[in-house]
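DM from R.C. (forwarded with permission)

"hey, sorry to bug you on a friday — could you get me a structure for this? deadline for the figure draft is monday and I only need the backbone to look sensible"
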Amino acid sequence: MPPGDLEIDATFTDQADPATADIVWLGASAGTISPSFAMDIIEYTVSVPHDVEGFSLYAQAKNPAAEISLEQTPPLEQTPPIEEPPEEPGDGSVDFDTELTLAEGLNTYTITVTPQDGESPSKTYTINVIKLPDLSLGSFKLTGESDFEQDLAQLEKQTVYVPLTEVTLTAAPADGSGATVEVKPGTEISDINPSPPTKVTVTVSKTVSGVSTPYTKTYTLNLSYSENLTGKP
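My reply, with the result:
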């Protein structure tokens, strides 16, 4: 071998550290996990729509031989307990698909990874899942004299032309949602402007378990009086 040349034979093996308790991936079937996953971040939040009936969490351990498990801390008495996760770690990934039934509000889950060596410290990741309330309107109507009535349930941020200068607005939350409704400036609306339109806001709000700040949704209605409209719309 010429001077200055060096030849090395090396064999590399991809062997997981038996002491590691990290997960390398975290996923959810609905919503967006925040913040973005990183192994050194151990607490996450995900918000899901109120109409999500089933929910799944997915996690994969860095060491496929580590034990990974899921537990739930129920925020409400009616939150059902979850079943035990699969006993066999397999490739280190766990799909908790059939085990999560969300109650409205905060649902807290912990994913715990126990190292393969059985001696090193375990690591726990906390996932706060918030099931959002139903803030839709069950009814949203304008009424006035001469049998004037207009259903506004599907209208949002639109101008509505009416033949009356005085109308009554009725708004109610979706059945069973438990939300509250506030109308500003009020349900009895008089002297509607032809231009600019008279602005009315309908705010639906609800405070859910485990979350201190109420969730709100505001519907904006622009009412404009028009002499060219006659009779029932």
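R.C.: lifesaver. The chain is about 0% helix and 40% strand.
me: no worries. Residues 12 and 18 are 17 Å apart (CA to CA).
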